[in-house]
Design goal:
It is built from no helices and 26 strands. By secondary structure, the chain is an all-beta fold.
Length: about 300
């Protein structure tokens, strides 16, 4: 389900799917997003999208309906993204949609025009400095979409091309403050995209280098207000990358009670005070302090 944390009281309020028609539509939450209008949207893997109504303390649902042409294209929703123009994009297992919040309708976009697309699943959406959409696909690499020109450009992994994308299974994307594009993938580690050349620089695990990536799957990417890059891995802990030193510092679960609570890191959030909150898949929530760790 969905948990709301009150830091002042150190208390969680839980919202779960139940028999109430206005409850959360599904308990598998994939993304939480507050848009530019102050609305809180919650996507799920199986229940479509929820709009939280704080006054009523319940939810409005947006789901797929076979008999409605402008409904959501798939209830398996992976990501929600609002671009620099205020357009609201939805990534699903059937491609991506442009969501009109005023009309409550969806315009679907398909990736079927690519011969090399094995399926239409989009896992994440971001935007580069040129206003292009970066589409991280489930198994078909990185796709750059220009909405004005309606053009797509695909980047894939090729075994015989060392500078190609490290893996076609994209799971995380980040456009940092300098405009650099970072890609995290399954078994490909971390890539830095050189857009002008169409090539990728790889950061991967090097067994003899303790300052390299700790694991080959980068599940989550985040840049803090100091310009540090946080990389959440699949059971490899947390890698903190400082661009100035070109080194990764590893934080992982240890016998110490204040270490990372679990090595499968899925999400990051920086609060107004500069604290970094770290979500794990199996170890709950961590509050990062450079001097110590705290768990919730």
């Amino acid at each position: 389900g969905l948990n709301r944390f009150d830091a002042a009281k150190n208390k969680f309020t839980r919202y779960k799917h139940n028999n109430n028609a206005n409850s959360l539509s599904h308990n598998l939450v994939s993304c939480i997003y507050e848009d530019g209008r102050g609305n809180l949207w919650v996507s799920t893997l199986g229940g479509g999208i929820n709009l939280f109504k704080p006054a009523e303390n319940n939810f409005v649902h947006y789901r797929h309906h076979d008999d409605k042409a402008r409904s959501l294209n798939n209830d398996q929703v992976n990501y929600l993204f609002e671009d620099s123009q205020g357009n609201f994009w939805v990534a699903t297992e059937s491609g991506f949609c442009l969501f009109s919040r005023e009309a409550g309708s969806f315009k679907p976009y398909s990736l079927g025009n690519f011969e090399t697309i094995s399926n239409n699943a989009i896992k994440i959406i971001k935007e580069d400095r040129q206003g292009n959409l970066l589409l991280g696909t489930g198994s078909s690499g990185l796709i750059i979409y220009n909405d004005k020109e309606k053009t797509y450009k695909q980047f894939r992994h090729f075994e015989k091309e060392p500078a190609s994308l490290a893996s076609d299974l994209v799971r995380s994307l980040l456009v940092d403050k300098k405009g650099n594009i970072w890609i995290g993938s399954v078994n490909g580690g971390l890539d830095l995209f050189h857009a002008s050349a169409g090539t990728f620089y790889h950061y991967q695990n090097e067994p003899d280098n303790i300052y390299s990536m700790s694991q080959r799957t980068a599940s989550a990417l985040f840049e803090d207000n100091q310009g540090n890059l946080w990389v959440g891995t699949h059971r490899g802990g947390l890698n903190l990358y400082s661009p100035n030193t070109e080194k990764f510092t590893l934080y992982r679960q240890e016998p110490d009670a204040n270490s990372l609570s679990y090595n499968d890191v899925k999400a990051f959030c920086e609060d107004r005070r500069g604290n970094i909150w770290i979500g794990t898949d199996g170890g709950g929530l961590n509050l990062f302090d450079p001097k110590k760790y705290a768990h919730s």
